[in-house]
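Risk mitigation, structural track. In case the binding assays with hydroxy diiron-OXO moiety fail to produce interpretable data, a predicted complex structure has been prepared as a fallback.
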Amino acid sequence: MLNEKMQKQINDQINAEFWSGYLYLSMSAWFTQHNLPGFANWMYVQYQEEFSHGMKMFRYIHERGGDVTLKPIAKVDTNWKSPVAILEQTLKHEQKVTSLIHALMDTAHEIRDYASINFLNWYVDEQVEEEAHAEELLSTVKMIEKDQAAMYALDKELSTRVFVDATLNNED
Ligand code: OFO
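Fallback model:
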């Protein structure tokens, strides 16, 4: 059975993951509207991943005999001044999510919930990747943003990113 504090915090995190997905979907729309379909695809995959991060928690709560409580998803930004501005927000957001995951881990340790510690380890690793990818893309775009040919080539590269469903990983 899931401890009540842990259950509430995971439910809040489901909302944070879905909110992240909603943010990235909005960014994907912006890129489509600004003729960067590869960037739009990258953000669309990001949106799919965030929903799968939330769904992995949704399933975990049920596996532990707990209750899922879905909350409203708050409004997200819809306009940015440039691809760099979008990627700066992406990196900042991922850093914030990392701190939320660490706070979840703190609770799991505090109450000696070993199953949740094990479960949350996946998210700790995932956040290392999420921040690294956002940081790498941000520094590349900062370097080439004024070079149309280089932006075109990067856009082509980003069009190849495919979705990997987090709910299919790490499960028995
Ligand atoms: Fe769920 O990893 Fe990004 O926010």
